[in-house]
Amino acid sequence: MASNKQSVTPPNQLSPNLRGVLWALLSTAIFALVAALAKVASGQYHVLQILFIRQVVVFFAAVPSIAGNFPHSLRTQHPKLHMIRLIGAFLALSCSIWAVSVLPLTTAITLTFAQVFFVTLLAMWFLGEPVGRHRITAVVVGFVGVLFATRPGVSGFFDVYALVPILGALGAAMAVTSVRRLSQTESTGTLLAYQAIFVGALAGIPMFWLWEAPDAQGWMLMIGMGALSSVGQWIGVKALRLGEASVVTNIQYMKLIYAAILGYILFMEIPDSNTLIGAAIIIGSSVYMMHRERRLKIGAEKSAFAGPRN
């Protein structure tokens, strides 16, 4: 008698790209909060001191993952790619803190969205990822929303401080593109350990001259930033393992929405109507991309179910 039992394991309804997008949404929210906390801390402490303490916490968070198999856990087959990624990470992290210390939170975060253009190009050139017209359209529309929300004038782009987050965006694109390839062969603990050691060392050397003893509130603030950064990086790496870099990075536009909320709560920044309209465009761009990924998943499942025709 044939069994009527069906598999109790539910089929996975989400494509890798869509799952990567969902994880990226959470990671983006965490890093928006870290940026807001960095703006608070930068009012009293040097940018490199904030970065140094943050990276020390990130390093200790990565220790359990690498200690069990040390020193094999630090071995890599791609030292040059690690170096590119680490240089990019230092630029991205240091410039992100510097930017929020000299620019309004929403402006600093908005200008980092140049990362999307850099990642799309690097993913196409070095990772061979397909970047079709739908993804390019989503990126362009999302950035139009950013411009609409901030209304930058010509003088804004020639402000020397505006170059800080753009440089950080280039560094972030280098790091993201490298992680996309490295995450296929390296553990998350190894990726975080290399970054914490390298970035921490570069930020730590100037501490001989720049260190200012934090008070209890300062310690809590900067250690909290490090803990949140650790969680955000773990989630971000998971997103990049699942989804293509040019897809996952598009979700960074949502950081503007988070920044507007945090700016209001922490700094009494009130978004105007243009900001709200721009935010709607940004959200629409991300939702469109997620919807298209879902449709592609359903189409692929239908094709597989139908099978070849004779």
UniProtKB/TrEMBL annotation:
<feature type="transmembrane region" description="Helical">
    <location>
        <begin position="82"/>
        <end position="101"/>
    </location>
</feature>
<feature type="domain" description="EamA">
    <location>
        <begin position="19"/>
        <end position="150"/>
    </location>
</feature>
<feature type="transmembrane region" description="Helical">
    <location>
        <begin position="217"/>
        <end position="235"/>
    </location>
</feature>
<dbReference type="Pfam" id="PF00892">
    <property type="entry name" value="EamA"/>
</dbReference>
<comment type="similarity">
    <text>Belongs to the drug/metabolite transporter (DMT) superfamily. 10 TMS drug/metabolite exporter (DME) (TC 2.A.7.3) family.</text>
</comment>
<protein>
    <submittedName>
        <fullName>DMT family transporter</fullName>
    </submittedName>
</protein>
<feature type="domain" description="EamA">
    <location>
        <begin position="165"/>
        <end position="288"/>
    </location>
</feature>
<keyword id="KW-0812">Transmembrane</keyword>
<feature type="transmembrane region" description="Helical">
    <location>
        <begin position="191"/>
        <end position="211"/>
    </location>
</feature>
<keyword id="KW-1133">Transmembrane helix</keyword>
<feature type="transmembrane region" description="Helical">
    <location>
        <begin position="107"/>
        <end position="127"/>
    </location>
</feature>
<feature type="transmembrane region" description="Helical">
    <location>
        <begin position="21"/>
        <end position="41"/>
    </location>
</feature>
<dbReference type="InterPro" id="IPR037185">
    <property type="entry name" value="EmrE-like"/>
</dbReference>
<feature type="transmembrane region" description="Helical">
    <location>
        <begin position="160"/>
        <end position="179"/>
    </location>
</feature>
<keyword id="KW-0472">Membrane</keyword>
<feature type="transmembrane region" description="Helical">
    <location>
        <begin position="136"/>
        <end position="154"/>
    </location>
</feature>
<dbReference type="InterPro" id="IPR000620">
    <property type="entry name" value="EamA_dom"/>
</dbReference>
<feature type="transmembrane region" description="Helical">
    <location>
        <begin position="47"/>
        <end position="70"/>
    </location>
</feature>
